[in-house]
């Protein structure tokens, strides 16, 4: 059985939540994780596409 992790990043506007999530995703890529990135303002869309991910509405 695999370890399963969940993460919530919460903070005010401009606190760096998207930057932190981008960093954590890049660090986790060596483990080939399945990541669901909820980004209501599309601040990480370019980052997600650069990692061969896709966005949905």
UniProtKB/TrEMBL annotation:
Q: What SUPFAM superfamilies does the database record attribute to this sequence?
A: P-loop containing nucleoside triphosphate hydrolases (SSF52540)
Q: Which Gene3D superfamilies does this UniProt record tie to the protein?
A: P-loop containing nucleotide triphosphate hydrolases (3.40.50.300)
Q: Where is the signal peptide, in residue numbers?
A: none
Q: Which InterPro entries match?
A: P-loop_NTPase, T4SS_component
PANTHER family reported for this sequence = TYPE IV SECRETION SYSTEM PROTEIN CAGE, UNCHARACTERIZED PROTEIN YJGR-RELATED
Indicate what this protein is called per its UniProt record. Answer: AAA-like domain protein
Species annotation: Anaplasma phagocytophilum str. ApNP
Q: What is the lineage of its organism?
A: Bacteria, Pseudomonadati, Pseudomonadota, Alphaproteobacteria, Rickettsiales
